[in-house]
Amino acid sequence: MSFSAAEGESTAEEIHIPADIEWHMLDKSKFFFLGAALFSGVSAALYPMVVLKTRQQVSQSRVSCVRTGVWIMRYEGLRGLYRGFGTSLTGTIPARALYMAALEVTKSNVGTTATGLGLPEPSAAAVANAAAGLSAAMAAQVVWTPVDVISQRLMAQGGGGGGGVKYASGVDAFGKILRADGIRGLYRGFGISILTYAPSNAVWWASYSMAQRVVWSGVGCLMCKNGEERVESGGLRPDAKAVMAVQGVSAAMAGGVSALITMPFDTIKTRLQVLDGEENNGRKGPSFGQTVRNLVREGGWTACYRGLGPRCASMSVSATTMITTYEFLKRLSAKNQEALT
User: Fold this and answer.
1) Secondary structure of the chain as H, E, C letters
2) Which end of the chain is less enclosed by CB atoms within 10 A, N or C?
């Protein structure tokens, strides 16, 4: 893959970066095994930010992220920042496997189709990335929504926001939700989850594709001025550190944009999943409309943006670590390592 970088006013240099690794080029068993290990580590590192976001979203008063974190550490200890982590991790592995498979298959097929229809390479890449993000999110939510419902109930109950029912563990929560509401209870918020994560992923992957081009243009100018290594056919070849840095910065930019756009949906989704029937005297949990009205009554429309700080931080850091880990994973899992250089 190559990008053009302006040099001076009349000349341009091409930046040659390692080619993207397509689905058919991967050793699937290595890809899924290493992916489960790597992303479990990433999930463990980022989980406390998810807990902080959830506590803020279900709180009926405005409490800062710092105060929430201090309160958890004082009264619950470090364990409070990892409530529901076991349940979340159990669901993350199959959900990630579905996500990665849907992502790569869709990206490869849509990219080939878009190019065949005559779209220029930048547009084809953006369309393929958006379609891949959309399909991957929808596939993963089949597994992730029940896990999300259980883990968020466990996260919220330490802060008094989980309703009248108390859960001893993920298994206990699973049984109680199933007995009270059936399968439907485990998929509470599924529709709003799709509305939150599918567009969010589409926006993120499309933004990531475009952000890379913008960042590479700026990096290319610096490389031209610094006289970086040139390849035999002309142009510039950045080293592995530069490639990773550009991927990380582009991912963080895309994560911030995506978090801001989809934050209201995420807050409503969390409220729907955490508040249960027992909190409403045994009646069915609040509807989408009731949840929105409750939020607006509590703090105006800005209440829909509670937890924005932790979510922006979580999504930006998560996106950066996810994309660098993901690209590293793909290179480790490639069948032909020599073809990557």
Assistant:
1) CEEEEEECCCEEEEEECCCCCCHHHECHHHHHHHHHHHHHHHHHHHHHHHHHHHHHHHCCCCCCHHHHHHHHHHHCCHHHHHCCHHHHHHHHHHHHHHHHHHHHHHHHHHHHHHHHCCCCHHHHHHHHHHHHHHHHHHHHHHHHHHHHHHHHHHHHHCCCCCCCCCCCCHHHHHHHHHHHHCHHHHCCCHHHHHHHHHHHHHHHHHHHHHHHHHHHHHHHHHHHHHCCCECCCCCECCCHHHHHHHHHHHHHHHHHHHHHHHHHHHHHHHHHHHCCHHHHCCCCCCCHHHHHHHHHHHHCHHHHHCCHHHHHHHHHHHHHHHHHHHHHHHHHHECCHHHHC
2) C
